[in-house]
Amino acid sequence: MPRKIRELIHDLERAGFENRGGKGSHRNFVHPRVSRPVTIAGQPGDDAKHYQQRAVQRAIEESKS
């Protein structure tokens, strides 16, 4: 079962990412130790796409190193 967008957002915020806003349903999350922002698109109740889950996981891993 795919995770929800709200769960990805929660994971990013828990890892110290900040929401810098965006247009429409897009949100850009930044972290001082991560080179590129993570963009999450979709409504909070939507199912997350596989590429979104991978991007969040990679960004969280990079923020720890």
Notes on the protein architecture:
The chain is an alpha+beta fold and about 60 residues long. About 40% of the residues lie in helices and about 15% in strands. It is built from two helices and three strands; from the N terminus they run H-E-E-E-H. It has helices at about 5-15, 50-65; strands at about 20, 25-30, 40. Strands 1-2-3 form a three-stranded antiparallel β-sheet. The mean pLDDT is about 95.
Short structural description:
With 65 residues, this protein is of the alpha+beta class.
What are the key terms here?
2 helices; 3-stranded antiparallel sheet; globular; alpha+beta; 65 residues; 38% helix
Global morphology: globular
What's the total count of β strands?
3
What is the helix fraction of residues, given as a range? 25-40%
- Read across the widest sheet, the strand sequence of neighbours is 1-2-3
Class per helix and strand makeup: alpha+beta
Low-confidence parts, pLDDT < 50 over ≥5 residues? none
**Number of discrete helical segments:** 2
Whole-angstrom Rg: 11 Å
The biggest sheet, with number of strands, parallel, antiparallel or mixed sense and barrel status, is:
3 strands, antiparallel
Overall pLDDT, averaged? Answer: 96
Topology overview:
Layout: H1 5-14, E1 18-19, E2 26-30, E3 38-41, H2 50-64
